[in-house]
Design a protein that fits this description.
Number of domains: 2
Number of helices: 4
Largest sheet: 6 strands, mixed
Helix content: 10-25%
Structural class: mainly beta
Shape: globular
CATH architecture of the largest domain: Beta Barrel
Number of strands: 13
Strand content: 35-45%
């Protein structure tokens, strides 16, 4: 019966498999050119012009506190329909549409807190892995648009302030070189 199953659009980020409800997905696209937005939170990679509609692109790796993708890797776009309008989630790989039984669903544990709890609706226990279901509205909520701040690397810590550090390398803030 249709009531006992739910359909999800799946995608991968790092080694994790995530999903959002199919009804929230407008479309999935290959990499789209982005325009960077000064002073935007680190999770906002830029804006995309999607056939005349301006869409905010959220880096799901950064939103979830994961390492940035390897250099030269282009993200894919999962365009979501939200109460705030269309938003793109930047992901590593697009999966497929999966229909899963509601009996396999588990809400997030009470020990999951803060940004993770805002973003994750729960998980489905699949035979070979957990399918992490994202809350489309929670993932983009303005109060949750801050990614956890990564610890400075050894080079960043040595450099201290902007400019070249003791080893002659330029300083970085949150993994980005200062201009």
């Amino acid at each position: 019966m249709a009531d006992e199953h739910q359909q999800f659009c799946t995608f991968s980020v790092d080694s994790y498999t995530f999903a959002v409800e199919v009804r929230k997905v407008q479309e999935v696209l290959r990499f789209q050119q982005m325009t960077r937005v000064p002073l935007a939170p680190g999770v906002v990679r830029g804006l995309i012009n999607l056939r005349g509609q301006i869409v905010t692109a959220i880096d799901l790796r950064r939103r979830l506190g994961l390492a940035d993708a390897p250099a030269g890797t282009l993200p894919m776009n999962v365009i979501l329909r939200t109460d705030q309008g269309a938003v793109s989630l930047l992901v590593d790989k697009i999966g497929d549409v999966r229909e899963v039984s509601r009996d396999l669903f588990e809400p997030p544990p009470d020990t999951l807190r803060d940004l993770a709890r805002d973003a994750i609706r729960g998980v489905y226990k699949l035979p070979d892995r957990l399918l992490i279901v994202l809350d489309a509205e929670g993932i983009i909520a303005s109060t949750a648009m801050r990614a956890p701040t990564p610890a400075p690397t050894r080079v960043e810590a040595k450099a201290g302030r902007s400019g070249a550090g003791a080893d002659g390398m330029d300083s970085k803030v949150n993994g980005r070189a200062l201009a």
